[in-house]
Amino acid sequence: MRLLEYQAKELFKEYGIRVPTSIVSKDVESGRKDAEKIGYPFVIKAQVPVGGRGKAGGIQKCHNEDEFELKYPQVLNMTIKGEKTRAVLLEKMSEYEKEIYLSLFLNRSKRCYTIISSAEGGVEIESVKNQVIREIGLGDVTKKVAEEVAKEIGLDANSITYFVDILQKLSKLTMEKEAELTEINPLVILKDGSMMALDGKIMTDDNSNFRHKELTKYQEKTELEKKAEESGFSLVELDGNIAVIGNGAGLVMSTLDMLTDNGGKAACFLDVGGTATTESVYEALTLISRMKNVKAVLVNLYGGIVKTTIVASAFLQAYDDKIIILPVFARLMGAESEKSKEMLKDSETQLSPSIEEAINKVVMEVNK
Amino acid sequence: MTDIFELLKGKQNSKGNFQKQPVIVQGITGKYGTRHTKLMIEYGTNIVAGVTPGKGGQKFENSVPIYETIKEAVDKTGAKISIMFVPAKFFLGAAKDALEAGIKLLVAIPEHVPVHDTMKIVALAKQKDAIVIGPNTPGVMIPELIKIGIMPASPFKFGNIVVLSKSGTLLYEICNNLSNSGFGQCITIGVGGDPINGTRLTDALDMVKDYPDLEGIVVVGEIGGDAEEVLAQKIIDENFNKPVVAYIAGRSAPKEKIMGHAGAIVMGNYGSAESKITMFSKANIPVAKRPIEVPVLLAGKIEKK
Questions:
Q1: Host H or E run for residue A62
Q2: Chain B residues near residue A202 by CB distance under 8 angstroms
Q3: Which residues in chain B are contacts of A125 at CB distance < 8 A?
Q4: Is the pLDDT of residue A199 over 70?
Q5: ∠ at Cα A245 (A239, A250), nearest 5°?
Q6: Residue of B nearest to A177 (CA)
Q7: What is the rounded CA–CA span in Å between residue B187 and residue B214?
């Protein structure tokens, strides 16, 4: 789960990492009240679960009421890289001397955590220069390690104490919440040498959610995503018009790639899981019937242990119940595919022997 | 390092035969465990015991003894291999018990295991000199001999190609294509779709690279992490000169979205398909655009040799 900035900052505060005064709101009336409380000038920040919002205009300085009336609705109604603004954060402007970078992330190939820090912050990590990288195991960062990192990035004696404190608190948060990434960018050094987190990014491990009921409140799922999760599917909504269903994440991604190569645009990525059943495929079709903009459905199933007839039955049932009225193009590979073809021959489903053919047909259908 | 081929099929005896090694199933009585245990036995895997707390003393399908603990199962059978079907939240405990009981090859099927739990098991496995495959893996198999996993039998034929895959169904799809093109497999290893793998692609390469009849390696990767990049670098550094071809799923996936597998997420450039494809080209490894192209690329590579 990727936390929004304000949620990350709530956790920072909980762990004693200093953040600027800020208030979050989701409509302009509440925003107005917050503006009074905070006092001008402040920064209006779009809360979106994606990077690069600054460049996209999602962060605006606001000096007076006129600017507020203009900019708040603008930021609230913004879509950045396909992500709608979830909320708006009004944040007191801070005066600082220097921006630095600090993060802890799960290093997959080394199978440990890694501290990344740099004396140059405020830009995207890829362009952060002079990175100090330090691998650490599962567990809190020791004072010694934190001090070494602080010295390596060239902080002065006064700032080192503050940095060590923040790094240790950040590592505690990372371990306790089982985060895959915690990032403070920029971490700013104030006049007195103390430090404050101006931005925050936290990614937690969804698979550890069962141990972190306290994080449930941060979950922002669409109705469809919730339904998908209940049925044990993985669903990612996209902005095209062809719904893509398959079994197994790799196979569905591969289908999405081939569809895109052939000029098709996917409306969703729907993985029913490695083992499809009549019920799960029926449930998947139901979900798709609730999605807007879908003009056709592309199905790619590799039935290994699962017989394709089980899938064919789901389709027949969905037609009977009038769940699907859209044209469906399917490639069902594996056990009993001949029998499935026979079952589906009078239905709206067009079966193809190869995924390439099914893709060509579905792209032609939506471009008709 | 423990030899995975020896673990799976034992040492060649004086007559030139191998002895299939005994396997324990943790979580043998669950719905999933039951179904796949039957299929593994059908395939010829030597399943000697099951473990389900509370069902010790019973028999699975009237033949395979069930024990209360993995320790008991290991003590009674001497098996060094275990496959587990326990729910994700019990993975940590079950895996710890298995490694402490002396299991040397642990195949962890469960999906949705917390990353921290996997990290703890990775550390323990290192201490015990054991191999962990997974979690979130379809398993490992030597086609036509031994299947320790949930893969269907039909796509796989025996031969001299190694297939390493992050994905399950794509592994089946690509092996089916390979088998149809006359490229049988000597071993297939599903490293799993999680952020942290018990056996990484690089570890898997080390396990198979000295296989005497090895003709080529197929790597089935996907977006997320940097396992493919690190593998390509290793192939360059070690000057590994057997034919290698790859397929990468997820070129068209949006950034910062989890695409089904917990590990399949692009953050900035970290984990992107472009990054992986670029590194593979540096290592002179062709990357197929579609699964069907894999055998064609492999044939080209082998011919060039």
A1: strand A59-62
A2: none
A3: 268
A4: yes
A5: 95
A6: B116
A7: 10
Closest CA to B155 of A304, A354, A253, A273: A304
Q: What is the DSSP annotation of A274-302?
A: SS--HHHHHHHHHHHHT-TT--EEEEEEE
CA torsion sign, B3 to B8 to B11 to B17? Answer: negative
Q: Identify the residue with better confidence: B41 or B12.
A: B41
- Rounded CA-CA distance A323/B146 in Å is 43
Sheet-wide strand order for A349-351: A234-237, A266-271, A242-246, A296-303, A328-334, A349-351
Q: What is the pLDDT of residues B46-62, one digit of tens each?
A: 999 999 999 999 999 99
Q: To which residue do tokens 């790859």 refer?
A: B246
Q: What residue in B sits closest to A210 (Cα-Cα)? A: B89
CA A260 to chain centre: 21
Identify the closest residue of chain A to B38 by CA–CA distance: A305
B36 is catalytic: no
Q: Is A324 helix (H, G, I), strand (E, B) or coil?
A: coil
Mean pLDDT of B17-25: 89
| Secondary structure class of A235 (helix, strand, coil) | strand
The CA-atom distances, in angstroms, between A269 and each of A25, A241, A293, B247 are: 31, 12, 14, 19
Write down the pLDDT at residue B272.
96
For residue A262, give how far its alpha carbon lies from the nearest alpha carbon of chain B (Å): 12
DSSP H helical segments within B45-114, as ranges? 70-77, 91-100
Instruction: Report long-range pairs for B51-60 (Cβ below 8 Å, ≥24 apart).
Output: B51/B24, B51/B25, B51/B26, B51/B27, B52/B27, B52/B28, B55/B29, B60/B25, B60/B28, B60/B29, B60/B34
DSSP state, residue A38: H
Instruction: Copy the structure tokens of residue A363.
Output: 């792209």
Cβ contact (<8 Å) for B255 and A125?
no
Q: Rounded to an integer, what distance in angstroms lies between the CA atom of residue B152 and that of residue A281? A: 19
Sign of the torsion angle spanned by Cα atoms A14, A18, A19, A25: positive
B152 touches chain A (CB under 8 A): yes
Q: How far apart are CA A189 and CA A153, in angstroms?
A: 13
Report, as an integer, the average pLDDT of B100-106: 98
Asked if pLDDT for residue A338 goes beyond 90, the answer is: no
Tell me which DSSP letter residue A190 carries: -
User: Does residue A278 register a pLDDT over 80?
Assistant: yes
Q: What is the pLDDT of residues A214-240, one digit of tens each?
A: 999 998 778 888 888 888 889 999 989
Give the Cα separation of B28 and A228 in Å (integer): 28
- What band does B18 get if pLDDT is binned at 50, 70 and 90? confident
pLDDT for A176 beyond 80: yes
Contact yes or no for B227 and A211 at CB 8 A: no
Residue B126 contacts A where some CB pair is shorter than 8 Å: no
B198 neighbors B106 (Cβ within 8 angstroms): yes
% of chain B residues with pLDDT over 70: 99
Question: Nearest CA to B209 among B168, B164, B173, B172?
Answer: B164
pLDDT of B1: 62
Average pLDDT, chain B: 95
- ipTM score here? 0.95
- Chain B contact probe: residue of A116, A135, A205, A301 with most B CBs at under 10 A: A205
Residue type, B35: R
Distance CA B298, CA B178 (A): 9
Strand B139-142 and strand B146-149: the pairing is antiparallel
- Residues of chain B contacting residue A238, judged by C-beta atoms under 8 Å apart: 254
